[in-house]
């Protein structure tokens, strides 16, 4: 009887081991996929940085130009005595 119990336990342990090995294989595959996707996102992010810097630079340039125009308009208004 104890031999039957031992065989039953061993059979269950073998089944559990097979399930764990299967899950480990699936996890490795999923982890590999996640790493590839993360790498792709990192590549895209690095590619966006120069564009972001260019946009910020252009925005700053435009703001300076607007400030200069505002100053010029104020001087013109003052000369024409259009301001209060």
Task: Quickly describe the structure.
This protein has one helix and no strands. With 84 residues, the chain is mostly helical.
Can you give a write-up of this model?
The protein has 84 residues and is an all-alpha fold. The protein contains one helix and no strands. The protein is rod-shaped, with a radius of gyration of 35 Å. The mean pLDDT is 86.
Task: Please describe the biggest sheet, giving its number of strands, its sense, and whether it closes into a barrel.
Answer: none
Unreliable sequence segments: none
* Proportion of residues in extended strands: under 5%
Structural class of the helices, strands and pairings? mainly alpha
Mean pLDDT: 86
Helix share, percent: over 70%
Tell me the span between the first and last alpha carbons. 109 Å
Shape type: rod-shaped
- From N to C, what is the helix and strand string? H
Write down the Rg. 35 Å
Number of helices: 1
Number of strands: 0
